[in-house]
Design goal:
Rossmann fold, seven-stranded mixed β-sheet, five-stranded mixed β-sheet
Length: 403
Protein backbone atom coordinates (compact mmCIF):
# COMPACT_ATOMS: atom_id res chain seq x y z
CA UNK A 1 0.00 0.00 0.00
CA UNK A 2 1.32 3.46 -0.90
CA UNK A 3 2.33 5.66 2.00
CA UNK A 4 0.84 9.08 2.28
CA UNK A 5 4.00 10.92 1.19
CA UNK A 6 4.00 9.03 -2.07
CA UNK A 7 0.26 9.53 -2.59
CA UNK A 8 0.74 13.28 -2.31
CA UNK A 9 4.18 13.46 -3.93
CA UNK A 10 3.09 16.48 -5.98
CA UNK A 11 3.22 18.56 -2.77
CA UNK A 12 6.25 19.52 -0.71
CA UNK A 13 6.12 18.68 2.99
CA UNK A 14 4.94 22.13 4.05
CA UNK A 15 2.12 22.05 1.50
CA UNK A 16 1.28 18.48 2.51
CA UNK A 17 0.91 19.39 6.18
CA UNK A 18 -1.26 22.33 5.21
CA UNK A 19 -3.37 20.12 2.98
CA UNK A 20 -3.87 17.55 5.73
CA UNK A 21 -5.09 20.15 8.22
CA UNK A 22 -8.89 19.71 8.31
CA UNK A 23 -9.44 23.33 9.26
CA UNK A 24 -7.83 24.53 6.03
CA UNK A 25 -10.89 26.01 4.32
CA UNK A 26 -9.59 25.55 0.80
CA UNK A 27 -9.56 21.78 1.23
CA UNK A 28 -12.72 21.12 3.23
CA UNK A 29 -14.45 19.75 0.15
CA UNK A 30 -11.53 17.41 -0.56
CA UNK A 31 -11.72 16.16 3.02
CA UNK A 32 -15.46 15.58 2.69
CA UNK A 33 -14.92 13.45 -0.41
CA UNK A 34 -12.07 11.51 1.23
CA UNK A 35 -14.21 10.94 4.33
CA UNK A 36 -16.90 9.46 2.05
CA UNK A 37 -14.48 6.98 0.48
CA UNK A 38 -16.59 4.06 1.66
CA UNK A 39 -19.87 5.29 0.20
CA UNK A 40 -20.07 2.24 -2.10
CA UNK A 41 -19.30 -0.31 0.62
CA UNK A 42 -21.71 -3.11 1.53
CA UNK A 43 -21.47 -6.74 2.64
CA UNK A 44 -19.99 -7.85 -0.69
CA UNK A 45 -17.38 -5.14 -1.27
CA UNK A 46 -15.63 -3.36 -2.81
CA UNK A 47 -12.34 -4.64 -1.41
CA UNK A 48 -10.28 -1.90 -3.09
CA UNK A 49 -10.75 1.36 -4.98
CA UNK A 50 -7.49 2.64 -6.45
CA UNK A 51 -7.05 5.97 -8.25
CA UNK A 52 -4.04 6.23 -10.55
CA UNK A 53 -2.73 9.67 -11.55
CA UNK A 54 0.35 10.74 -13.50
CA UNK A 55 0.10 14.38 -14.62
CA UNK A 56 3.19 14.30 -16.84
CA UNK A 57 1.34 12.16 -19.41
CA UNK A 58 -2.26 13.06 -18.55
CA UNK A 59 -3.00 9.68 -16.97
CA UNK A 60 -6.14 9.43 -14.85
CA UNK A 61 -7.58 6.02 -14.10
CA UNK A 62 -9.53 4.03 -11.55
CA UNK A 63 -9.47 0.36 -10.55
CA UNK A 64 -12.22 -1.21 -8.44
CA UNK A 65 -11.64 -4.72 -7.10
CA UNK A 66 -15.04 -5.64 -5.76
CA UNK A 67 -15.11 -9.19 -4.39
CA UNK A 68 -12.52 -11.92 -5.01
CA UNK A 69 -13.80 -14.62 -2.66
CA UNK A 70 -14.20 -17.02 -5.60
CA UNK A 71 -10.85 -16.15 -7.16
CA UNK A 72 -8.98 -13.29 -8.85
CA UNK A 73 -11.27 -10.78 -10.51
CA UNK A 74 -11.68 -10.53 -14.27
CA UNK A 75 -13.06 -7.29 -15.67
CA UNK A 76 -12.61 -5.07 -18.68
CA UNK A 77 -10.64 -1.85 -19.07
CA UNK A 78 -13.05 0.84 -20.29
CA UNK A 79 -11.77 4.04 -21.92
CA UNK A 80 -13.95 7.13 -22.39
CA UNK A 81 -13.78 10.86 -21.59
CA UNK A 82 -16.72 10.72 -19.17
CA UNK A 83 -16.06 7.62 -17.06
CA UNK A 84 -16.23 7.94 -13.27
CA UNK A 85 -15.44 6.14 -10.05
CA UNK A 86 -19.12 5.45 -9.54
CA UNK A 87 -19.46 3.92 -13.01
CA UNK A 88 -16.34 1.83 -12.36
CA UNK A 89 -17.76 0.51 -9.08
CA UNK A 90 -21.14 -0.31 -10.62
CA UNK A 91 -19.43 -2.18 -13.45
CA UNK A 92 -17.16 -4.02 -11.00
CA UNK A 93 -20.21 -5.13 -9.01
CA UNK A 94 -21.86 -6.23 -12.24
CA UNK A 95 -18.76 -8.36 -12.89
CA UNK A 96 -18.99 -9.89 -9.40
CA UNK A 97 -22.58 -10.86 -10.15
CA UNK A 98 -21.79 -11.97 -13.70
CA UNK A 99 -18.85 -14.19 -12.77
CA UNK A 100 -20.78 -15.73 -9.88
CA UNK A 101 -23.89 -16.29 -11.97
CA UNK A 102 -21.74 -17.91 -14.66
CA UNK A 103 -20.22 -20.25 -12.08
CA UNK A 104 -16.67 -19.04 -12.69
CA UNK A 105 -13.86 -19.25 -10.14
CA UNK A 106 -13.30 -15.52 -10.49
CA UNK A 107 -14.45 -12.40 -8.68
CA UNK A 108 -15.49 -9.02 -10.02
CA UNK A 109 -13.35 -6.02 -10.90
CA UNK A 110 -13.26 -3.19 -13.40
CA UNK A 111 -10.91 -0.43 -14.49
CA UNK A 112 -11.51 2.82 -16.35
CA UNK A 113 -9.25 5.30 -18.10
CA UNK A 114 -10.25 8.90 -18.72
CA UNK A 115 -9.61 9.74 -22.36
CA UNK A 116 -10.81 9.61 -25.94
CA UNK A 117 -10.44 6.02 -27.20
CA UNK A 118 -9.93 7.42 -30.72
CA UNK A 119 -6.85 9.42 -29.73
CA UNK A 120 -3.63 8.73 -31.69
CA UNK A 121 -2.56 5.14 -31.10
CA UNK A 122 0.87 6.13 -29.79
CA UNK A 123 -0.70 8.21 -27.02
CA UNK A 124 -3.29 5.55 -26.23
CA UNK A 125 -0.59 2.91 -25.95
CA UNK A 126 1.41 5.12 -23.57
CA UNK A 127 -1.59 5.64 -21.28
CA UNK A 128 -2.58 1.97 -21.21
CA UNK A 129 0.97 0.72 -20.65
CA UNK A 130 1.56 3.21 -17.83
CA UNK A 131 -1.80 2.41 -16.22
CA UNK A 132 -1.01 -1.30 -16.32
CA UNK A 133 2.45 -0.70 -14.85
CA UNK A 134 0.95 1.30 -11.98
CA UNK A 135 -1.31 -1.67 -11.18
CA UNK A 136 1.31 -4.38 -11.66
CA UNK A 137 1.15 -5.39 -8.01
CA UNK A 138 -2.64 -5.75 -7.95
CA UNK A 139 -2.66 -9.49 -8.62
CA UNK A 140 -6.34 -9.76 -7.70
CA UNK A 141 -7.24 -8.06 -10.98
CA UNK A 142 -6.94 -9.48 -14.50
CA UNK A 143 -7.36 -6.95 -17.32
CA UNK A 144 -9.75 -7.64 -20.20
CA UNK A 145 -11.05 -5.57 -23.13
CA UNK A 146 -14.13 -3.37 -22.83
CA UNK A 147 -15.57 -0.30 -24.51
CA UNK A 148 -12.72 1.73 -26.00
CA UNK A 149 -10.13 -1.05 -25.71
CA UNK A 150 -9.43 -4.17 -27.75
CA UNK A 151 -7.15 -7.18 -28.21
CA UNK A 152 -4.16 -5.02 -29.11
CA UNK A 153 -4.61 -3.04 -25.89
CA UNK A 154 -4.63 -6.29 -23.93
CA UNK A 155 -1.39 -7.31 -25.65
CA UNK A 156 0.19 -4.07 -24.38
CA UNK A 157 -1.00 -4.90 -20.86
CA UNK A 158 0.31 -8.48 -21.12
CA UNK A 159 3.68 -7.15 -22.30
CA UNK A 160 3.90 -4.84 -19.28
CA UNK A 161 2.62 -7.02 -16.44
CA UNK A 162 1.94 -10.50 -17.87
CA UNK A 163 -1.70 -10.49 -16.74
CA UNK A 164 -4.58 -9.98 -19.19
CA UNK A 165 -7.20 -11.83 -21.22
CA UNK A 166 -8.86 -11.14 -24.55
CA UNK A 167 -5.48 -11.32 -26.27
CA UNK A 168 -4.72 -11.66 -29.98
CA UNK A 169 -4.27 -15.30 -31.04
CA UNK A 170 -0.61 -14.62 -31.88
CA UNK A 171 0.15 -14.30 -28.17
CA UNK A 172 -2.06 -17.10 -26.92
CA UNK A 173 -5.47 -15.46 -26.82
CA UNK A 174 -8.94 -16.42 -27.99
CA UNK A 175 -10.10 -13.45 -30.10
CA UNK A 176 -13.42 -13.00 -28.29
CA UNK A 177 -14.35 -9.85 -30.25
CA UNK A 178 -13.55 -11.53 -33.54
CA UNK A 179 -15.48 -14.73 -32.81
CA UNK A 180 -18.32 -12.84 -31.11
CA UNK A 181 -18.34 -14.64 -27.76
CA UNK A 182 -20.74 -12.22 -26.06
CA UNK A 183 -23.02 -12.03 -29.10
CA UNK A 184 -23.15 -15.83 -29.25
CA UNK A 185 -24.21 -15.90 -25.60
CA UNK A 186 -27.03 -13.47 -26.36
CA UNK A 187 -28.33 -15.83 -29.04
CA UNK A 188 -28.37 -18.64 -26.46
CA UNK A 189 -30.32 -16.42 -24.05
CA UNK A 190 -32.86 -15.66 -26.79
CA UNK A 191 -33.44 -19.37 -27.36
CA UNK A 192 -34.23 -19.90 -23.67
CA UNK A 193 -36.19 -16.66 -23.15
CA UNK A 194 -38.53 -17.29 -26.08
CA UNK A 195 -40.14 -20.09 -24.05
CA UNK A 196 -41.60 -17.25 -21.96
CA UNK A 197 -42.70 -15.17 -24.98
CA UNK A 198 -45.49 -15.47 -27.57
CA UNK A 199 -43.36 -15.52 -30.72
CA UNK A 200 -40.68 -17.61 -32.43
CA UNK A 201 -37.18 -16.56 -33.43
CA UNK A 202 -37.83 -17.29 -37.09
CA UNK A 203 -38.97 -13.98 -38.56
CA UNK A 204 -38.59 -12.11 -35.26
CA UNK A 205 -37.62 -8.45 -35.74
CA UNK A 206 -34.53 -7.37 -33.81
CA UNK A 207 -32.98 -3.98 -33.09
CA UNK A 208 -29.45 -3.49 -31.73
CA UNK A 209 -28.49 -0.32 -29.89
CA UNK A 210 -24.72 -0.25 -30.36
CA UNK A 211 -22.90 -1.87 -33.27
CA UNK A 212 -19.59 -2.71 -31.64
CA UNK A 213 -18.26 -6.16 -30.92
CA UNK A 214 -21.37 -7.16 -28.94
CA UNK A 215 -24.18 -5.71 -31.02
CA UNK A 216 -22.91 -6.75 -34.45
CA UNK A 217 -22.27 -10.35 -33.42
CA UNK A 218 -25.58 -10.64 -31.59
CA UNK A 219 -27.24 -9.55 -34.84
CA UNK A 220 -25.10 -11.99 -36.84
CA UNK A 221 -25.92 -15.04 -34.71
CA UNK A 222 -29.63 -14.20 -34.35
CA UNK A 223 -30.18 -13.55 -38.06
CA UNK A 224 -28.31 -16.77 -38.85
CA UNK A 225 -30.99 -18.51 -36.75
CA UNK A 226 -33.87 -16.89 -38.63
CA UNK A 227 -34.40 -13.46 -37.07
CA UNK A 228 -34.48 -10.23 -39.11
CA UNK A 229 -32.45 -7.16 -38.19
CA UNK A 230 -34.69 -4.13 -38.75
CA UNK A 231 -32.84 -1.42 -36.81
CA UNK A 232 -29.40 -0.50 -35.53
CA UNK A 233 -27.64 2.45 -33.94
CA UNK A 234 -24.12 3.57 -33.11
CA UNK A 235 -22.69 6.70 -31.49
CA UNK A 236 -23.27 8.76 -34.67
CA UNK A 237 -26.78 7.79 -35.76
CA UNK A 238 -29.29 5.05 -36.48
CA UNK A 239 -30.88 3.21 -39.39
CA UNK A 240 -34.27 1.49 -39.69
CA UNK A 241 -35.83 -0.69 -42.38
CA UNK A 242 -38.87 -2.84 -41.47
CA UNK A 243 -38.03 -5.15 -44.38
CA UNK A 244 -34.61 -5.93 -42.94
CA UNK A 245 -30.99 -4.78 -42.98
CA UNK A 246 -27.99 -6.66 -44.34
CA UNK A 247 -25.93 -7.52 -41.24
CA UNK A 248 -22.75 -8.31 -43.16
CA UNK A 249 -22.97 -5.01 -45.03
CA UNK A 250 -23.35 -3.10 -41.75
CA UNK A 251 -20.35 -4.93 -40.29
CA UNK A 252 -18.23 -4.01 -43.32
CA UNK A 253 -19.35 -0.38 -43.02
CA UNK A 254 -18.29 -0.29 -39.38
CA UNK A 255 -14.91 -1.81 -40.27
CA UNK A 256 -14.47 1.01 -42.77
CA UNK A 257 -15.11 3.61 -40.05
CA UNK A 258 -18.58 4.56 -41.25
CA UNK A 259 -21.75 5.03 -39.24
CA UNK A 260 -24.75 2.74 -39.61
CA UNK A 261 -26.68 5.92 -40.48
CA UNK A 262 -24.83 5.89 -43.82
CA UNK A 263 -26.52 2.61 -44.82
CA UNK A 264 -28.20 3.30 -48.15
CA UNK A 265 -31.43 1.33 -47.88
CA UNK A 266 -33.42 2.56 -44.90
CA UNK A 267 -34.48 5.55 -42.83
CA UNK A 268 -31.56 7.20 -41.05
CA UNK A 269 -31.96 9.29 -37.90
CA UNK A 270 -30.07 10.31 -34.77
CA UNK A 271 -28.91 7.65 -32.33
CA UNK A 272 -31.78 8.27 -29.89
CA UNK A 273 -34.31 7.17 -32.52
CA UNK A 274 -33.33 3.54 -31.88
CA UNK A 275 -35.47 3.60 -28.73
CA UNK A 276 -38.62 4.17 -30.80
CA UNK A 277 -38.03 1.39 -33.36
CA UNK A 278 -40.76 -1.24 -33.23
CA UNK A 279 -39.41 -4.78 -32.90
CA UNK A 280 -39.74 -8.12 -31.10
CA UNK A 281 -36.27 -8.22 -29.54
CA UNK A 282 -34.42 -5.06 -28.48
CA UNK A 283 -30.74 -5.42 -27.57
CA UNK A 284 -28.94 -2.57 -25.76
CA UNK A 285 -25.23 -3.09 -26.44
CA UNK A 286 -23.53 0.21 -25.63
CA UNK A 287 -23.43 2.43 -22.52
CA UNK A 288 -25.03 2.21 -19.06
CA UNK A 289 -28.43 3.71 -18.25
CA UNK A 290 -29.62 4.22 -21.84
CA UNK A 291 -33.11 3.22 -20.76
CA UNK A 292 -34.54 4.99 -17.73
CA UNK A 293 -37.91 6.05 -16.35
CA UNK A 294 -38.10 9.07 -18.68
CA UNK A 295 -37.79 7.10 -21.93
CA UNK A 296 -38.73 3.49 -21.11
CA UNK A 297 -42.33 4.10 -22.28
CA UNK A 298 -41.04 4.72 -25.81
CA UNK A 299 -39.90 1.12 -26.25
CA UNK A 300 -42.06 -0.99 -28.56
CA UNK A 301 -40.74 -4.50 -28.02
CA UNK A 302 -41.58 -7.83 -26.38
CA UNK A 303 -38.18 -9.02 -25.21
CA UNK A 304 -35.02 -7.18 -24.12
CA UNK A 305 -31.66 -8.93 -23.86
CA UNK A 306 -29.01 -6.73 -22.30
CA UNK A 307 -25.74 -6.94 -24.21
CA UNK A 308 -24.28 -3.90 -22.43
CA UNK A 309 -23.52 -3.64 -18.72
CA UNK A 310 -26.30 -1.99 -16.66
CA UNK A 311 -28.04 -0.44 -19.71
CA UNK A 312 -31.42 -0.20 -17.95
CA UNK A 313 -32.09 1.44 -14.60
CA UNK A 314 -33.82 -0.58 -11.89
CA UNK A 315 -36.93 1.59 -11.99
CA UNK A 316 -37.17 1.20 -15.76
CA UNK A 317 -36.85 -2.57 -15.40
CA UNK A 318 -39.79 -2.56 -12.99
CA UNK A 319 -41.87 -0.57 -15.49
CA UNK A 320 -41.02 -3.07 -18.23
CA UNK A 321 -41.95 -5.98 -15.97
CA UNK A 322 -45.29 -4.39 -15.12
CA UNK A 323 -45.96 -3.96 -18.86
CA UNK A 324 -45.28 -7.63 -19.51
CA UNK A 325 -41.98 -7.05 -21.35
CA UNK A 326 -39.38 -9.65 -20.43
CA UNK A 327 -35.96 -8.10 -19.76
CA UNK A 328 -33.06 -10.53 -19.26
CA UNK A 329 -30.48 -8.72 -17.10
CA UNK A 330 -26.98 -7.92 -18.25
CA UNK A 331 -24.88 -10.17 -16.05
CA UNK A 332 -26.84 -13.20 -17.21
CA UNK A 333 -27.19 -12.23 -20.87
CA UNK A 334 -23.75 -10.84 -21.71
CA UNK A 335 -21.58 -13.31 -19.78
CA UNK A 336 -20.27 -14.92 -22.97
CA UNK A 337 -17.27 -12.62 -23.11
CA UNK A 338 -16.06 -13.23 -19.57
CA UNK A 339 -16.69 -16.97 -19.86
CA UNK A 340 -14.52 -16.97 -22.98
CA UNK A 341 -11.90 -14.92 -21.11
CA UNK A 342 -11.86 -17.39 -18.22
CA UNK A 343 -11.42 -20.30 -20.64
CA UNK A 344 -8.51 -18.43 -22.24
CA UNK A 345 -6.95 -17.63 -18.86
CA UNK A 346 -6.98 -21.34 -18.04
CA UNK A 347 -5.39 -22.13 -21.42
CA UNK A 348 -8.49 -23.47 -23.18
CA UNK A 349 -9.22 -23.06 -26.89
CA UNK A 350 -11.96 -21.56 -29.05
CA UNK A 351 -13.99 -24.77 -29.28
CA UNK A 352 -13.95 -25.15 -25.50
CA UNK A 353 -15.02 -21.50 -25.16
CA UNK A 354 -18.13 -21.92 -27.32
CA UNK A 355 -19.09 -25.16 -25.53
CA UNK A 356 -18.69 -23.56 -22.12
CA UNK A 357 -20.65 -20.44 -23.11
CA UNK A 358 -23.50 -22.58 -24.45
CA UNK A 359 -23.67 -24.76 -21.34
CA UNK A 360 -23.31 -22.08 -18.67
CA UNK A 361 -25.52 -19.39 -20.20
CA UNK A 362 -28.29 -21.83 -21.09
CA UNK A 363 -28.31 -23.33 -17.60
CA UNK A 364 -28.14 -19.99 -15.79
CA UNK A 365 -30.81 -18.32 -17.96
CA UNK A 366 -33.13 -21.26 -17.33
CA UNK A 367 -32.53 -21.07 -13.57
CA UNK A 368 -33.15 -17.31 -13.45
CA UNK A 369 -36.33 -17.36 -15.54
CA UNK A 370 -37.72 -20.36 -13.67
CA UNK A 371 -37.13 -18.55 -10.37
CA UNK A 372 -38.69 -15.38 -11.80
CA UNK A 373 -41.78 -17.32 -12.86
CA UNK A 374 -42.08 -19.32 -9.64
CA UNK A 375 -41.51 -16.46 -7.19
CA UNK A 376 -43.23 -13.76 -9.32
CA UNK A 377 -40.26 -11.41 -9.08
CA UNK A 378 -38.29 -9.31 -11.55
CA UNK A 379 -35.75 -11.19 -13.70
CA UNK A 380 -32.96 -9.08 -12.18
CA UNK A 381 -34.11 -9.90 -8.66
CA UNK A 382 -34.00 -13.60 -9.54
CA UNK A 383 -30.54 -13.19 -11.08
CA UNK A 384 -29.20 -11.21 -8.11
CA UNK A 385 -30.51 -13.85 -5.70
CA UNK A 386 -28.77 -16.61 -7.65
CA UNK A 387 -25.47 -14.73 -7.95
CA UNK A 388 -25.47 -13.47 -4.34
CA UNK A 389 -26.04 -16.97 -3.01
CA UNK A 390 -23.00 -18.17 -4.95
CA UNK A 391 -20.82 -15.25 -3.81
CA UNK A 392 -21.78 -15.68 -0.17
CA UNK A 393 -21.11 -19.41 -0.36
CA UNK A 394 -17.62 -18.66 -1.70
CA UNK A 395 -17.09 -16.10 1.08
CA UNK A 396 -17.58 -18.77 3.74
CA UNK A 397 -14.36 -20.47 2.62
CA UNK A 398 -12.22 -17.32 2.95
CA UNK A 399 -10.53 -16.03 6.08
CA UNK A 400 -11.28 -12.40 5.26
CA UNK A 401 -14.59 -12.86 3.47
CA UNK A 402 -14.29 -10.66 0.35
CA UNK A 403 -10.54 -10.79 -0.33
Amino acid sequence: MLDIYRIYSIFNIKELNQYLEPSHKKNQEEWRIMDDAFRFADELGPAKIIHVYEPSIGLKGVLVVDNVSAGPSIGGLRMAPDVSTQECFRLARAMTMKNAAAGLAHGGGKSVLFGDPYMPEEKKEQLIRSFATALKGECDYIFGPDMGTDEKCMAWVKDEIGRSVGLPPEVGGIPLDEIGATGFGISVVADVALKYCDFDLKGARIVVQGCGSVGKHAARFLTKNGAVLVGAADSRGSIYNPDGLDVNKLIEMKKAGKSVAEYSDGKSADREAVIDMECDIWIPAARPDVIHEDNVHRLKTKLIISGANIPITHHAEKILHDKGILSVPDFIANAGGVICAAVEYHEGNETMAFQTIEEKIRENTEQVLERMDKEKILPREAAVELATERVKNAMTYRRWSIF
